[in-house]
Amino acid sequence: MSYRVSDEDRERVAERLRRAAGDGRLTLDELDTRLTDAFGARTYADLAPLVDDLPPEEGVDVPVRPAPTAPVRREELVLGGNGSLRRRGRWVVPPRIRIERRHGSVILDFREAVLTSRQVDVDVATKYGSVELVLPDGASASVDSRHDWGTVRTTVPEVTDTGGPHFAVKGWMKFGSLRIRYGFGHRYRARRRAR
What we know:
Layout: H1 7-22, H2 28-39, H3 44-47, E1 76-82, E2 85-87, E3 92-93, E4 96-102, E5 105-109, E6 114-115, E7 119-127, E8 130-135, E9 140-143, E10 151-154, E11 166-174, E12 177-182, H4 186-194
Parallel strand pairs: 1-4, 2-5, 3-6, 4-7, 5-8, 7-11, 8-12, 9-11, 10-12
């Protein structure tokens, strides 16, 4: 069992990450990703992996998790808070992502990401912002139309015959926009594959 963390716990880990970036131990992209995860952490088990690969600091109490007997698999990623967020490149995608943001844009680029399941459930709860999902070639996506949305634009089919991953999007969005697309150049790559 892992206990819930407080705002003070999150801030303590965030400050340690900032110092590590200042020392050159983390790149700015790594710092941004880890800070997002730190402020979205709910339990000590969520915080501990963020500093596992950093050397201990004298006098700094950082949550420690016990050594797992089996590989730890993150089942959910929560992207909360305000402002804009962009995730791209190589990152691990759990089976479920929750986007809970206000007044900002979220761009999640899955083209180089490592997917841990065949289907990714994306739960959206945003106000006055935009969400853009950039999917890998061959992926499919569905949007639950029973919920309240702002503007929805998608160029990705709900079903494909490629056996690619599926992204199931549900939730709500007030005064915002949702866009789901492939990466630029998708049509060109599809034509080349068809030859």
